[in-house]
What we know:
This protein has 248 residues and is an all-alpha fold. 78% of the residues lie in helices and 2% in strands. The protein is built from 10 helices and 2 strands; from the N terminus they run H-H-H-H-H-E-E-H-H-H-H-H. A two-stranded antiparallel sheet has the order 1-2. The longest helix has 36 residues. It is found in: Cell inner membrane; Cell membrane. It is a multi-pass membrane protein. Its main location: membrane. This is Amino acid ABC transporter permease.
Amino acid sequence: xxxxxxxxxxxxxxxxxxxxxxxxxxxxxxxxxxxxxxxxxxxxxxxxxxxxxxxxxxxxxxxxxxxxxxxxxxxxxxxxxxxxxxxxxxxxxxxxxxxxxxxxxxxxxxxxxxxxxxxxxxxxxxxxxxxxxxxxxxxxxxxxxxxxxxxxxxxxxxxxxxxxxxxxxxxxxxxxxxxxxxxxxxxxxxxxxxxxxxxxxxxxxxxxxxxxxxxxxxxxxxxxxxxxxxxxxxxxxxxxxxxxxxxx
Length: 248
């Protein structure tokens, strides 16, 4: 591998195209850590946004008026405001209201760090769209199906988990796929509150090496591949779950 890394150093000396994360071990570690952080943040946000979507869609069908109003209010707030403003709101407004915790060296640190606030904010942002996506899928399930389940003595929660949701998921997968892809791309906003994800680490590298152009090309290709893998996985899942004659 050393010969491979050294080749990029020689390549830089002869062409001026500088990719230090390929020949410098320090920059390589920074970039790799940023890549892993992007993956981890994406997984956490994807998981919680889907949970929020599922729970929100179920609550939207609640017989209680105020429960439905609360869910609708949440959707309107997060759908009608920019995700960067939401991120700043959580980090700078809510974060400063929380108590501090004592560190090992006797100082004080915020109860939640920048990663936690990024995960919370982006999960709520994508979750608001997921609620509407799952709701549209639930409404597409034939009424006769749920009525048959009611006749068999299923409770409302059992109908949702065992009858409505499995059918609704097959209907909403294309729209859910698009929203989750947008969520992965939106994780770059975490850069604004210093979460050391891929864009943040790339910024550190181009600040040290003055190679903005090369790092921009690398970031474009890296996100293209990352999102491409997610799209491939979701498309495969969509084909596997497809029921002939339903949802198409």
